[in-house]
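thought: fold this chain, then report.
action: predict
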Amino acid sequence: MTRIDAHLHVWRAATGETPGVRTIIPPQTDVPIELASETMIDHQIDRSVLVQPVFRGEDNSYVASCASAEPARFAAVAVVDPRTPGAEQRLEQWVAKGCRGLRLRPRIADEEALFGDPATFPLWEAAERLGVVVSLLSGPDHVAKIDRLAQRFPQVSVVIDHLGHPSISAGTADAKFQALLGLARHERVYLKLSGLYHFSSERFPFRDCVPLVQAIYEHFGPRRLLWGSDFPHVLLACGYARSRQWIETVLDNLKPSERDLVMGSNALRLYWPAD
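observation:
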């Protein structure tokens, strides 16, 4: 069975300050593709989806070149800023360079206002035309707009990163979390089981996340969940092996075939559809 890490970051170290960017592994630390590759080998991961880091903006050249060098092993998700005119043309250019995904980031304050605005529809139309998967770095306040976008663009596959950063303290009965579960009515909306330490109030094994993850599984099912490590941040947060084991422990009722979907087959279908 193919094992795929659906959320992995690599980058070249920033040479200066990166205002507004707060990450576990700082941008000034070099995280090369070689380190990611070695980690994958150590943990028997066959393929990975390289998600463009926040601080690099639209300079997707490193993730694109890494994916182009080994397309059977890596797929790149590019960032294109919808606030800048010509976004759809720039998406086409990055797809031509080997990118298979687009990341939009309404959780970033400067990018939130335009999320879901009709002015961005040409970018979504380009994603549909190009067969690009749209990843969303979003929060609970963005679910209503995601719902409308999924309804308007039903042929676009949408993957919500880090479970949409739910409020753990609000619990499963929270209206915003219930709205997230309601996105299950859109058959091309997926959730990524990744980055739990970004919103958990506990250390590993993140027991406070268990009820929410189980509720998400009950609504979306195994065919629309993807596991991602959030490498390299996971290395300091809880460790790569624990990230894998956590999913298998929490969703312990999964059949082997269902576990294969979450741990690889779903990502393979989205990012390597010809394989």
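thought: worth noting. The mean pLDDT is 95.
final: tokens above.
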